[in-house]
Write a structure and sequence with these properties.
Number of strands: 7
Largest sheet: 7 strands, antiparallel
Number of helices: 6
Distance between the termini: 33 Å
Strand content: 35-45%
Strand order of the largest sheet: 2-1-5-6-7-4-3
């Protein structure tokens, strides 16, 4: 998929709404060759997805070995809105302290200002550092069930139209 095609999909209003959410599911291949799919908080910085994790997270060795990932960001309503992304981990940055993105991605949770202060103090006391995982999208598809459908359903719609016109 060409970068301009990816950008066009990611710039659609529904995609932008999904990219503003706080959780995605990230699929990757573990070192033992089996698949993993984890929910993880994220930030969209306008061109890349950033997730943060502990320095001892098992997924880091897997992502160093095989940096290809698949991401899903979706809604919980019917019909769902779904942004499917494939990408490549471009950076695994070890950061002293807490990355600003980590604080940002957890900023959408409903907390009073006082709760936020307590939460942030707890986070800062727990982690001496984290790893920023920076993912560049290499493929994108938006499914909104109004203007776009899963490719298999699109194929069925096309076949039905051909039968009706035959």
């Amino acid at each position: 998929m060409q970068q301009n095609e990816i950008t066009a999909i990611l710039n659609r209003p529904i995609s932008q709404e999904l990219l503003a959410r706080d959780l995605l599911r990230m699929a990757y291949v573990a070192k033992d060759g089996t698949p993993r799919n984890i929910p993880i908080a994220f930030v969209w910085n306008g061109s890349r997805i950033v997730v943060c994790t502990t320095k001892n997270a098992p997924k880091l060795a897997s992502l160093r070995h095989n940096p290809e990932v698949a991401l899903t960001i979706d809604t919980e309503v019917h019909p769902p809105q779904i942004l499917l992304l494939r990408g490549r981990v471009e950076e695994l940055d070890v950061v002293d302290g807490i990355p600003e993105e980590y604080l940002q991605m957890n900023g959408s949770y409903e907390m009073t200002p006082e709760q936020r202060v307590v939460w942030e103090a707890e986070v800062r006391s727990l982690y001496d550092g984290m790893v920023r995982i920076v993912i560049t999208p290499t493929w994108a598809k938006l499914i909104d069930f109004e203007t776009t459908l899963p490719s298999a359903v699109e194929e069925l719609v096309q076949r039905r139209a051909e039968r009706q016109h035959a």
